C-alpha cells in the first residue's frame, strides 16, 4: 500500500494534542512533538511520530512521567550530573544541553551526565542546539529497554541496544554545520520497526534470527522467538556500543543492560556529553577556514556513482527536510493507523 502523506503542521498538532490529553503541559507537549516531527522531516522516521504509540503505552504503565525537569544532583566546576526521574527525554535532554552550552560559553567547556531519562529521542537535536551556539559537542547515549536487541560482534543474541553517538561542529560563513549522529548498530531499532510496519525486508547482514542465523525479516525483533540487530562495522561498531554503555550507563551513575533485575521500566536513556568552545583552542577565523577547506577537499572526490555525490554528515538530513517541508512526510499505512488509534484512545482525535 502507498504511504500516507502528512503535512508537518498537522502531524505536530496531532502529537501535541495527544501529549496534552495525557497530562503534559503546553511547553512539554510542544518540545516533544516538535522533536519527533523534526526527526520525520530530516528522514529519521525511526525517531519520529511513529514512537507516539509506545510513548502512550509507557505513559499508561507509569514508565514515563509528564512535566518533570532535569534535577541537578552535583555541580563541580564544568561538571554537571543530572537526574531525569523518567521524565520525557526531549525536555530533559534540551535542558541539560542548555546548561552545558551556558557553562561552555562561560568557562570554555562543560561535561554533563544525565541519568534515568525516558527516551531522549533523536540525539542529533542536541547537537543542533550546540552548533547553533557556535560550540562543539560530543554525545554518548546508552539504551536500556526490555530485552537487548543488538548482538555484540561474534555473538548470537542481543546484549546491547542501539547506543547512539553524536558529534556536532558549528558552521561558518563558508561552510555549513557538520552533524554526525548514528546508532552503533547496523540500523536503529526504530528503522526495523518502520520496515516491519511497512512489510519490507531489510538488507542482508543487518539482522540475525533467534538461532544466530542471518535474516532479512524485521519480524525477528517483534515476534517470538526474538533475534537481534548486528553492530555496524563488525568489532568497531560493537566496541563503540560497549563504550556508550560504559560512559553513558556506568559513568553517569545510570542503568545498563546487564542487570536483569530491572524489569520493564520502559525505554530508559542515559547520556554523557562534552561541550567545548572552539575559540578556547584556536583562532575562530582559522577554525572555520580550515573546516571549509577540509570539507571541500572531501566532497571534491569524484563520486563513484553520479547519482550519489559525496556528502558530509548533516547534508542528507538538510536535503530530506527541504523536500518534506515542500511535499509532506510519508508515513506507512500501519504506522499512520497506530498514530491515529493512539490519538483517538485519549480523545485527541475524533
Provide the succession of SSEs.
Answer: EHHHEEHEHEEEHEEEHEHHEH
Strand order, largest beta sheet? 2-3-4-11-5-6-7
CATH class value of the largest domain: Alpha Beta
At the fourth level of CATH, the homologous superfamily of the largest domain is Malate/L-lactate/L-sulpholactate dehydrogenase, NADPH binding domain
Residues in helices, as a percent range: 25-40%
Structure summary, number of beta strands: 12
Output the CATH topology of the largest domain.
Ribosomal Protein S8, Chain: A, domain 1
Give the CA-CA distance, first to last residue. Answer: 24 Å
Query: What percent strand?
Result: 15-25%
Structural domain tally? 3
Number of helices: 10
List keywords for this structure.
350 residues, alpha+beta, Ribosomal Protein S8, Chain: A, domain 1, 3 domains, three-stranded antiparallel sheet, 10 helices
Describe this structure in words.
This protein has 350 residues and is α+β, with helices and mostly antiparallel strands. It has three domains: 1-67 and 301-350, Malate/L-lactate/L-sulpholactate dehydrogenase, four-helix barrel (Hypothetical Oxidoreductase Yiak, Chain: A, domain 1, Orthogonal Bundle), CATH 1.10.1530; 70-185 and 233-290, Malate/L-lactate/L-sulpholactate dehydrogenase, NADPH binding domain (Ribosomal Protein S8, Chain: A, domain 1, 2-Layer Sandwich), CATH 3.30.1370.60; 195-230, no CATH class. It is built from ten helices and twelve strands. It has helices at 8-21, 26-41, 52-61, 89-107, 124-132, 189-197, 235-251, 284-299, 315-327, 333-345, and strands at residues 4-6, 71-76, 79-83, 109-118, 136-144, 165-169, 178-182, 207-208, 214-215, 228-229, 268-276, 329-331. The mean pLDDT is 96.
